[in-house]
Amino acid sequence: MSTAILESDHPGRWWETLPDGRVECRLCPRCCKLHEGQRGFCFVRQRAGDRMVLTTYGRSSGFCVDPIEKKPLNHFYPGTSVLSFGTAGCNLGCRFCQNWDISKAREFGKLADAASPETIAAAAKRLGCKSAAFTYNDPVIFAEYAMDVAAACHEAGIQTVAVTAGYMSPEPRAEFYRHMDAANVDLKGFTEEFYHKLCFAELAPVLDTLKYLKHETDVWFEVTTLLIPGENDSDAELHRAAEWYAENLGPDVPWHFTAFHPDFKMLDKSPTPPATLTRARAIALGKGLRYVYVGNVHDSAGGSTWCPQCQRRLIERDWYVLGEWNLRDGACRFCGCKIPGRFEAKPGTWGARRVPVRLS
Length: 360
Hints:
The protein is built from 9 helices and 22 strands. The protein has a 9-stranded mixed beta sheet. Strands 1-6-5 form a 3-stranded antiparallel beta sheet, with no helix packed on it. It has a 3-stranded antiparallel beta sheet with strand order 2-3-4, with no helix packed on it. The two termini are 35 Å apart. The protein has helices at residues 100-103, 117-126, 143-155, 170-177, 192-199, 204-216, 235-249, 274-286, 300-303; strands at 10-11, 15-17, 23-25, 33-34, 45-48, 51-54, 59-60, 62-67, 81-86, 113-114, 131-134, 159-164, 182-186, 220-227, 255-259, 292-295, 305-306, 313-318, 321-325, 327-328, 331-332, 355-357. It has 2 domains: 10-54, no CATH class; 59-357, Aldolase class I (TIM Barrel), CATH 3.20.20.70. The chain is of the alpha/beta class and 360 residues long. The radius of gyration is 20 Å and the shape is globular.
């Protein structure tokens, strides 16, 4: 008997029928193989009849206007606001997930807001947002919806941002990022053991995504690593990660080290000491990286942008609040050093506000 297809279900892409009759999802490296009615690891991609459907198309766990620095993106129109939203589910199984109530949701009652791509684009414009972000859970698993929203946003003059773990197969990845203006990619650790044990995933596909973004796209991207005490914060691992980063991504891709707090299935760990973030930042800077930040803590020096040439402060930040601004035409106003990123003549004035909104 065929599974009933709900009105909200949307035809999914990137799948194949196997010789044994199962349908294999080709969206991410998991390649979930599904019998009738089964859902993939992400829970939101389901076999219905002889096809794959996306069960969360047009349905969101909520909308909020955030500072762009919260994504975090420090070199993408600083100080501007971004309309942020997610759906439900995730294709990773991180035991430390900080948004687990959304990413691990199995109850679609959490999807309280319904919105078409055109509605989201119009709302972003009406609310004065520079961009719209696919975040809270990974947009990889709702790629069809995210790409349609991105197309509508571009029609309205709105930029688009993907906040993602980068766990995606090559063919859909290429199409997905053609629709994105910016991304923040989580590099969760730098060992396969960490990814296997704590994320139920693999490191190699994430590294492939980072290299793809750097060498084959014009997407502005930054990288975030959540440092968990005793798991991914050793000097040895940070040195290896920074060396790979410098060799493969170069010195100008910003890297954010952020503080962990106990959550979800990792309640036995202590919060990350600020000194750990400072140590990680020093290691990365020591490998020649120019824009390394700390996050989830009050550290104005570690959160600010500094000129790599004259060492003057260019953009002062205290958490999400901007202060001193010393950029002129995207360059240091003191020595003229060009700073990579997307900058306007003046910073935005959104500040640290987080404003939930309803679109329906």
